[in-house]
Amino acid sequence: MPIQINLDMMLVKRKMSLTELSNRMGISMTNLSLLKTGKVKGMRFVTLEAICKELDCQPGDILEYIPEFV
User: Fold this and answer.
1) Which pLDDT score is estimated for 20?
2) Using an 8 Å Cβ cutoff, are 18 and 36 in contact?
3) Which of 7, 13, 53, 57 could cross-link with 36 by S-S, CB 3.0 to 4.6 Å?
4) Using only C-alpha atoms, what is the Rg of the chain?
5) Could you tell me the CA-to-CA distances from 40 to 15, 56, 70 in Å, in that order?
């Protein structure tokens, strides 16, 4: 998939665990874990907004477009 999710890198930069982010956002660990590993097909803007708020970052810090070369 050409969209890469860099949630794990932002968590490291902010010195925050996935558990702490889950607790702050009120989102299950399972959903955040699936998001972190890139096993989701979509994300609501509300969720992206909440992640950016808690990690004090921009959507571009979380999502990255990497073109696929055939």
Assistant:
1) 96
2) yes
3) 7
4) 12
5) 24, 22, 23
Phi, psi for residue 36 in degrees, rounded to 5: -60, -40
Q: According to CATH, what is the number of the domain 3-65?
A: 1.10.260.40
| pTM score, whole prediction | 0.86
Tens of pLDDT, residue by residue over 22-63, are: 999 999 999 999 999 989 889 999 999 999 999 999 999 999
Q: How far is C-alpha 8 from the geometric centre of its chain's CA atoms? A: 7
Is the pLDDT at 21 greater than 70, yes or no? yes
For position 70, what pLDDT does the model report? 63
Q: Is 26 exposed, middle or buried (0-12, 13-18, 19+ CB in 10 A)?
A: exposed
Say if residues 9 and 60 touch (Cβ distance below 8 Å): no
